[in-house]
Amino acid sequence: MAQFVKLNPKSLRELHVGSDRLVSYNVEMTEITGGTFWKAYTPGQIAGTEPFVLKGGFGGNSTANSELMQYYEPIDLYNEKLRKLAKEIGPAWVRVSGTWSTKTYYDFDGRTNGVIPEGYNAVMTRAQWIGVLDFCKFLGAKLLISVADCEGLHHADEPWNPSQAEQIFALSKEYGVSIDAAEFVNEPNLLVMSGCPKGYTAQQFVRDQDIFIRWLKANYPDCLYVGPCTSEGAGGATEEHKSQGGGIGDILPQCSTDDLMNGAQEKLDVYSYHYYNGVSERLESIMPHSHWKADAATTEAYLSVATNMAKFHAEKRDIYCPGGEMWVTESGDAGGGGDTWASTYLDVFRTLNELGGFSAVTKGIIFHNTLASSDYGYLKPEVFDPRPNYFAVLLWNRLMGTTVYDSAEPVREGAHVYAHSRADGKPGKAYLVINNSLTDTTTVTLPKDAEIYQLSAETLRSQTMLCNGKALVLGENNALPEIAPVAASAGELVLQAATCTFIVL
């Protein structure tokens, strides 16, 4: 059904002022050290013409499955193209974490000579960590990490000790680039997969999180403590009710956010959680009810997951970090490296809707997983070509300011409407109108002349996005394309089906 939207910028009610670093991203620890990560889909799988089939079946250890994983060399954080494109996004937080970080040994003195100590699964050299610090310094980015907490550091019945954390914090301080925020363990609710010591319990996590926070506040009091970094979903997955962000957590032994916070003596500075709509095709065979098919990717049920998760965790935030910000320290369309369409225009609807919906619920930061790894990265791994989502968030940062308003429009198919101040600081408002209908137009009544940036693609699974009909691709010497608006006069503006449109008044 065609929708009608009337914009009334003078009557908007202010909700809050958010952060100019809302759009942030992860650089996984395995990227820093080199290691296994999710194997890239084929061109046919991305286009939707070739099904993803796990021929050998799921063996129970995804990191060792050659059909799911491949080895990647360490990312070159000094690459000129990578740095240029990352800086163009705008101010950001960079998070270096992931499950790999829980079991990474900091070999800053070269003592191991590349040999991984028992109880760890990777080593990070001094040069590799300085590369991260240089990258953040170049970007003017703030840095969030999580620290080692594995069998190599201590046994479950022994308290955590700061011997590894001391090294990474001390080197960062010595180099002049601070660690601005820290989480303790990546996704500690996944007791099987978190990388923590064998037999680790929620109670032991609470014990050790308190120890870490006390150590942090005693030695690095300006560093924010962010937690508990869970991937708990808002409801379990069934055949009739797809996962509401739980994904892997829907089937694996786990504990809840409440379990990880009950009895904690030390306070959070920022509340954090992870959000994925579900799991990708790579993990569909063992979690079929946590996977969404491509034909659902523009539906109300699918797009509502991110906002439902924000509302669910906002209630937890109010309990465990009252008055604090809420950060999504990992976010993406699907756990397991992203769906086959994650690198296409089809995922732009989810990405932009997440930014708009989250901002309407609360203020905070969203760390997209990842900047340049796997199929859900903003940039294609190794070559760093920008994907549709890259240009989507680039435009968000250029146009949507930090003051958030109630759009006064109920969310419905064809009309997801979000209202912000203008990012350029000029008087007026900036709107995002997502027409997620694949068949019907949406008519917007403009109160005055406006600048229009309409995103579309020749096909939903195209890896090239259009803005006002112009392809968004890099030019000579990796120059960003000119992204110019078209003028629209006051009156009715018709938005075609399957478009995301920024309207600047």
Quick overview of this protein structure:
The protein is α/β, with parallel strands linked by helices and 505 residues long.
Shape: globular
Radius of gyration: 22 Å
Number of helices: 10
Quaternary? single chain
Q: Report on the biggest sheet.
A: 9 strands, antiparallel
Descriptive account of the structure:
- With 505 residues, the chain is α/β, with parallel strands linked by helices.
- It has two domains: 3-14 and 407-504, Golgi alpha-mannosidase II (Immunoglobulin-like, Sandwich); 15-406, Glycosidases (TIM Barrel, Alpha-Beta Barrel), CATH 3.20.20.
- 23% of the residues lie in helices and 24% in strands.
- It has ten helices and 24 strands.
- The chain has helices at residues 29-33, 43-47, 80-89, 126-139, 163-175, 202-219, 257-261, 300-320, 348-361, 388-399; strands at residues 3-6, 13-17, 23-26, 35-38, 69-72, 93-96, 104-107, 122-125, 142-146, 181-183, 224-230, 270-276, 325-332, 364-368, 400-406, 416-422, 429-435, 442-446, 450-456, 466-467, 470-471, 486-488, 491-495, 499-504.
- Strands 2, 15, 16, 17, 19, 20, 21, 22 and 24 form a nine-stranded antiparallel β-sheet that branches. The chain has an eight-stranded parallel barrel with strand order 3-6-9-10-11-12-13-14.
- Helix 4 (126-139) crosses helix 5 (163-175) and helix 8 packs parallel to helix 9 (348-361).
- The two termini are 27 Å apart.
- The model has no long low-confidence stretch (mean pLDDT 94).
